[in-house]
Amino acid sequence: xxxxxxxxxxxxxxxTDVNLCAYLEGLSAEHLAKYNPEWTDEEVVxxxxxxxxxxxxxxxxxxxxxxxxEFREVLEKHIRFAS
Length: 83
Known about the structure:
This protein is mainly alpha-helical. It has one domain (12-82). It is built from 4 helices and no strands. The chain has helices spanning 15-25, 29-33, 41-48, 68-82. Helix 1 packs across helix 4. The termini are far apart.
């Protein structure tokens, strides 16, 4: 079977994934436009302003911590798809 005819892969999202997507949806277009993927992790944390002192994103009702690597990956996908 060719790649064009393979069934789509279903991605299972946990509660944290859903909350992270909702968090990113709540960020303004103006704020998102200021994001620079070349920033250091520290610059991203400062830009976002919602990371705890232990390095995880502050989200409510989470099953797990969202660290900067996951945050950046999901954020960059969000920005691409929002454009």
